[in-house]
Amino acid sequence: MRDLLSTANLSRKEFEDILRKAAALKADRRVTNELAGRSVALVFLNPSLRTRASMQVAVFELGGNPVLIEPGSTSWSIEYRDKIVMDGNKTEHIAEFVRVLSRYVSAIGVRTFAELKDWEYERTDPVLHAFAKYSNVPVINLESAMHHPCQAFADMLTIRERFGSEKKRVLMTWAWHPKALPMAVPNSFVLAAAQCGHELTIAHPAGYDLDSDLMRQATEHAEAAGGSIRVTNDPHQGFDDGDVVYAKSWAPASFYGRPDVGHHASLRHDWIVDSEKMSRTNDGIFMHCLPVRRNVIVTDEVLDSSNSVVIDEAENRLHVQKAILAALVK
Ligand code: CP
């Protein structure tokens, strides 16, 4: 592993090593010295609670120094386009921004959400890849347009804590949301669940398909790991005898470039996760990456139940990120 841009190209061993190391770090939580004398830049182009706090604490607990950078706010705004005449409102080109940071720090974490303007462009994660291109230290994706690998590792660790390494019946279900949201979390969860060989159901309304290349990659991983993937447009079917229910809203490719389009109101009632749906699972756990809108994505009753593991998931961000940093920064 040189960078962590997604989990897609990780070997089974690399994937398992991160989970094992994260579990060990969680079991013996103390300040260590893997990053002693080193700094890690954390570049946030978008808001965050969990990612920002857990990365800062992760670097600190490995003995290092987190350097928080917010372009366009507490640091200069960044221009990404090549061969551009910079006479607009952007102050610094990414070519200098990243190469300068690389002289100071031992790794760079970057959060850069999809803008939901141009699907064909954004699905290639251009900003994230520009960071990787110009950096000569490891780059860690802290959520891009297409991937959120740190979240996916935390999700897999959370499932493993409840069920061990057994393959489980896992549902990723779309949910209604007042805003159009990117696909990074469902993409990364689907990939990681496939890499772990789970029996995965993806439920979403017709027309809300995840990226076809991503689905092809996930299917290949599922086959290699002895798992399976099925897709349904039925909001109820995937709950039957499920062990894990993961809810997340996302906007399909057809929403990109159409700022006024939203999810149809008729989808709201059918796609919320409630006690009736959870009662049909195999005493399944409820997962969400957070932040979550109560009584929109999931009812209070489910979110506050003992089957809800959302706080464990959030805690596990810290432990997996410590393991990722320790693996990448040599
Ligand atoms: N799950 C997650 O990435 O949370 P934040 O957006 O608060 O970082």
List the helices and strands and how they pair.
Elements: H1 12-27, E1 39-44, H2 50-61, E2 65-69, E3 78-79, E4 92-93, H3 94-104, E5 107-111, H4 119-122, H5 126-134, E6 139-141, H6 149-163, E7 169-174, H7 184-195, E8 199-203, H8 212-225, E9 228-232, E10 244-248, H9 266-271, H10 275-279, E11 285-287, H11 300-303, H12 310-328
Parallel strand pairs: 1-2, 1-5, 3-4, 5-6, 7-8, 7-10, 8-9, 10-11
This protein binds phosphoric acid mono(formamide)ester.
Phosphoric acid mono(formamide)ester is lined by residues 48-51, 143, 151, 289-291.
Can I get a quick summary?
The chain has 330 residues and is an alpha/beta fold. 38% of the residues lie in helices and 14% in strands.
What does this structure look like?
This protein has about 325 residues and is an alpha/beta fold. It has two domains: about 10-145 and about 315-330, Rossmann fold, CATH 3.40.50; about 150-315, Aspartate/ornithine carbamoyltransferase (Rossmann fold, 3-Layer(aba) Sandwich). About 40% of the residues lie in helices and about 15% in strands. Strands 9-8-7-10-11 form a five-stranded parallel beta sheet, with helices on one face. Strands 2-1-5-6 form a four-stranded parallel beta sheet, sandwiched between helices. Strands 3-4 form a two-stranded parallel ribbon. The longest helix has 19 residues, at about 310-330. The mean pLDDT is about 95.
